[in-house]
Design brief:
- The complex is a heterodimer of chains A (405) and B (230).
- Chain A has one domain: Cytochrome Bc1 Complex, Chain C (Up-down Bundle), CATH 1.20.810.
- Helices cover 65% and strands 2% of the residues of chain A.
- Chain A is built from 16 helices and four strands.
- Chain B has a single domain, classed as Cytochrome c-like domain (Cytochrome Bc1 Complex, Chain D, domain 2, Orthogonal Bundle), CATH 1.10.760.10.
- Chain B is built from eight helices and two strands; from the N terminus they run H-H-E-H-H-E-H-H-H-H.
- A two-stranded antiparallel sheet of chain B has the order 1-2.
- Classes of the chains: A mainly alpha (405), B mainly alpha (230).
- At the A-B interface, helix 5, helix 6, helix 11 and helix 14 of A face helix 1 and helix 8 of B.
């Protein structure tokens, strides 16, 4: 079909002025992709899909949402009322809002799988270091974006989550208090906070869109890695992206939509994981909820924060846990990329995945003495994993890597 | 295949993390299961009656308008029935209690929460509301006055005095009272998300379409890839 379009007069007219034909060739129909990519390589295109869905649904939500903490009847606020108006009175408002709320969680599901694939198959290693680093920037902006967005309904968890996180900045020496006040727009979380978080929640996804463009550009310069983690030299080892991976990604998209739509239509709160129970209660600065926890996708880092008695150490560790991702490509010195041929790394990285989920569980649960110790051990392993990577090649006996695929 | 191993590890890890989170909080006795059906017009209308006769004495449900009682087919009240309920209030008005917040604070010590979103806003949802309504007992330690001790309420001490007169009811009233508690729980579950039945109905079509689409794209993928050895 693409061929037919490219033969039309209209396309010739556009091509003459934009070189569209050459772009299509170099990026799609002649873009070489390894022929052995497995389904773990589908999560990148899925992340792009969810980003687009989030931006589109977000634009429509903003048409009805009102960022104001001004009190209304019954202890609610203008913001909370406007969300309920979307849910009840706007035609298909419930659909748009559930798509957006579920989409936020699904974005992280997909991106965490994408990152996990990169870790397992060593996709972050040379020459793809910068590709990985741009990806980490995307992760941080996503987390910021999600955090700002969660404040907008102005429910109990919105409010108290923002109180806990913005208080963290107070732990930073000298400038901390000032940064906290600038972020909150005053001395306590309130109406100005809601307004600036709304502004940032609109800004960050636009940054995201631009940086995702950079991520894809960087990918198209160095090309995809593959499950064997080897460099490909022979032309018969690669296949053109279109039609092979466009159809495979399309199949992946349909498969993903099955899960996404099931949640949107049948279980949008996802048992309090995607939309928390406390967020159906309007924000009340005089009543602290029994248990404050961030949404599931931020809980691993919340556990790292809570594992330290000193607030400053906790904040520093949380920062370091994300910051260390930037230097991962330089910490990992093994010449072999894929965990398939690295027996020790394979065990370590699978344990790392389990470790992050344990961290998430600890952060989501009410704190108990046992969970605190579990969280501390998990935090220790989180850092141990990264710190031990430079020393791994000294004693790890890697398996022979295949010549080609 | 190695990928299967990888996937298995991911899945095993997620199951470990995602199991059993819901634990009853302080004071909370185990919840009874509420037998509710948010598509059952009879039950929802009975629940509405309990709501207007009992709950609305103190509580509001401001996001449910009088007009909504007619507009949502699940309730489907006639204009006459709604006019009788609303008195001189507008169809656009939310269902608000006549008791002022100030008076409520004087009488009960706190403002009664709005019930529009009480079902999704409490751990346990409709089961919690149902269990709370039939959870009034005499304080085993004899400290809290009768009607303010509830076995499922966090901390047990509740400001709302036994709305259905569950305490000391006769054995032959049990069926009627549990029915009322169930009906009003169903009603509250419905009004928290009044498009939920539409949502599920559309959802079935969406899932059907997506299943078909997935199948077609899968076969297409296999067809396109049939000559690639990998």
């Amino acid at each position: 079909m693409l061929d037919k379009i490219m033969k039309t007069q209209l396309f010739a007219w556009i091509d003459k002025r934009t070189d569209a034909g050459a772009i299509i060739k170099s990026q799609l129909t002649e873009y070489p992709a390894p022929k052995n990519l497995n389904y773990m390589w589908n999560f990148g295109s899925l992340a792009l899909l969810v980003l687009v869905l989030q931006i589109l649904t977000g634009i429509f939500l903003v048409m009805y949402y009102k960022p104001s903490a001004e009190a209304t009847f019954g202890g609610f606020s203008v913001a909370f009322d406007s969300v309920e108006r979307i849910m009840r009175d706007v035609n298909f408002g419930w659909l748009i809002r559930y798509m957006h709320a579920v989409g936020a969680s699904m974005f992280f599901v997909v991106v965490y799988m994408h990152i996990g694939r990169g870790l397992y198959y060593g996709s972050f290693k040379a020459p793809r270091e910068l590709l990985w680093i741009i990806g980490v920037v995307i992760l941080l902006i996503m987390q910021g974006s999600a955090f700002f967005g969660y404040l907008l309904p102005w429910g109990q968890m919105s409010f108290w989550g923002a109180v806990v996180i913005t208080n963290l900045f107070g732990a930073i020496p000298v400038l901390g208090e000032y940064i906290g006040q600038v972020l909150v727009g005053g001395f306590a979380v309130g109406d100005p906070t809601l307004n600036r978080f709304f502004s940032l929640h609109y800004l960050f996804p636009l940054l995201l869109a631009a940086i995702v463009g950079g991520h894809i550009h960087a990918l198209h310069v160095v090309h995809s890695s593959n499950p064997e983690g080897i460099d490909l030299h022979k032309p018969e080892e690669t296949i053109p992206f279109h039609p092979y991976y466009t159809i495979k990604d399309a199949f992946g998209v349909a498969f993903f939509l099955l899960f996404y739509c099931y949640i949107v239509f049948f279980n949008p709160q996802m048992g309090g994981y995607f939309i928390e129970v406390d967020n159906y209660v309007p924000a009340n600065n005089l009543q602290t909820p029994a248990h404050i926890a961030p949404v599931w996708y931020l809980t691993p880092w919340y556990t790292i924060l809570r594992s330290f008695e000193s607030k400053l150490l906790g904040v520093a560790a949380m920062g370091a846990s994300l910051g260390i991702l930037f230097v991962l490509p330089f910490l990992c010195r093994s010449a072999v990329r894929s965990a398939r041929y690295r027996p020790v790394y394979q065990i370590m990285v699978i344990m790392f995945f389990i470790d992050v989920i344990v961290l998430g569980y600890c952060g989501h649960s009410s704190p108990t003495a046992t969970l605190k110790v579990v969280g501390q051990i998990a935090t220790a392993y989180y850092f141990l994993f990264f710190v031990s990577l430079p020393f791994l090649p000294k004693f790890e006996k890697t398996k022979p890597v295949p010549e080609g695929i | 295949m190695k990928m299967t191993k990888f996937l298995m590890a991911m899945i095993a890890a997620s199951v470990m993390g995602f199991s059993s989170q819901a634990v009853a909080s302080g004071g909370g006795a185990a919840l009874e299961h509420a037998n509710i059906d948010v598509t059952d017009q009879e039950q929802l209308r009975r629940g509405l009656t309990v709501f207007t006769d009992v709950c609305m004495g103190c509580h509001s449900a401001k996001y449910l308008t009088y007009g909504g009682l007619m507009r949502y087919p699940e309730l489907g009240l006639t204009r006459e029935a709604v006019d009788e309920l609303r008195g001189d209030k507008s169809l656009m008005d939310g269902m608000k209690s006549d008791l002022s917040v100030e008076d409520a604070v004087v009488s009960y010590g706190k403002a009664p929460p709005d019930l529009s979103l009480v079902v999704p806003g409490r751990r346990g949802g409709a089961d919690y509301v149902y269990s709370l309504l039939i959870g009034y007992e005499a304080d085993p330690e004899g400290k809290v006055p009768d009607g303010n001790w509830n076995k499922v309420f966090p901390g047990n001490r509740i400001a709302m005095p036994d709305p259905l007169s569950w305490l000391d009811h006769d054995a032959d009233e049990t069926a009627e009272l549990t029915q009322q508690a169930e009906d009003v729980s169903a009603f509250l579950a419905f009004i928290a998300d009044p498009h939920q039945n539409t949502r599920r109905a559309i959802g079935c079509w969406v899932m059907g379409f997506l299943l078909l689409l997935t199948l077609v794209l899968w076969r297409l993928k296999v067809e396109v890839w049939k000559d690639i050895k990998h």
